[in-house]
Each structure stands twice: as structure tokens, then as C-alpha cells.
Amino acid sequence: MDLTPLDVRYQEFPVGLRGYHRGAVRAYLARVAEVMEGLIQENEGLRQRLQGLEEEVARLKEAEGELKRAVVAAERIARELRAQAEREAELIRKEALAAKEQVLKEAAEELRRLRGEIERARQEKALFLGQVRALLEGYLEALRRLEGGP
After folding, report:
1. Where are the domains of the chain?
2. Euclidean distance between CA atoms 116 and 88, whole angstroms
3. Core-most of 21, 27, 29, 97, by most CB within 10 Å?
4. How confident is the model at residue 72 (pLDDT cuts 50, 70, 90)?
5. Which segments does the entry list as coiled coil (predicted)?
6. Helices (H), 1-150
7. What is the predicted pLDDT for the residue at 13?
8. pTM across the whole model
9. Would you say residue 1 has pLDDT above 60?
10. How many CB atoms neighbour CB 66 within 10 A?
11. CA atoms of 9 and 27, how far apart (whole Å)
12. What value does the mean pLDDT take over residues 45-72?
């Protein structure tokens, strides 16, 4: 059975031969009723506060869950970015090695070509010198004959 402040305030007691003083009983019951009303109001306020706090806890738990999901997603994205960066770095390294090999190959071909040109130039020089020598010797021979010499 629930007891309300109104029940306390208006409670009637049978009057006996040597009963309680009615005014004192009424005053005490009124005081008890007031205390009960205060406690009931305080209890209701605490219930509302508890409900608000429970709602806040639920909201914070939801926010915590979202935050955890965001952290997990950020970690996953970071791992993916790191892996992608490593793949790109490896690709750049391979491209650099291929470019180096191509440059070395082209340099070796250019070196062979230049050596060939140098060799041809030497041969042409030797041929030219031989032709000039032969021409000069022919002129010398012609000069000796013209001078009447041996």
C-alpha cells in the first residue's frame, strides 16, 4: 500500500478516553506530510536527473562507438596509404633502375659509335697522309727529273 502526503495529512484516528491531543497529532502529521512531499519531489527530481544521465550515457556510448569506428577506419586508411606508398616507391625504384639501365646502354652504344668514328678517322688520316706523301713524293720525283738529277 502506497502512502501519500495527503493520506498522512488527512488520516483520522479514533478518539479514545485518554487519546492523543488532536492538535499535536494534526501538527505532527502535517509536518510528516510536508517532509514526505519534499522527499517525493526530490525523488521525482532525482528520477528525472537519472533519466537525463542515462540518456546522456546512451548518447556518449553511441558517440564512443562512432569514434571507435572512425579510429578503426582511420587505421585501415593509414595502412592502405602506407601500402600504396610502398608500392609506389617500389615502382619508382624499378623505373629508376630501368632508366639507369637505359642510360647505361645508350652510353655504351654512344661509346662504341665514337670509338668506331675515331678508328675511321685514324684510318682516313692514315690514308690521307699516305696519299699526300705519295703525291709529294711524286712531285719530288718530278722536280728531280726536271732538274736533271739522278
Report:
1. 5-147
2. 41
3. 29
4. very high
5. 29-131
6. 5-9, 22-147
7. 73
8. 0.46
9. no
10. 10
11. 9
12. 95
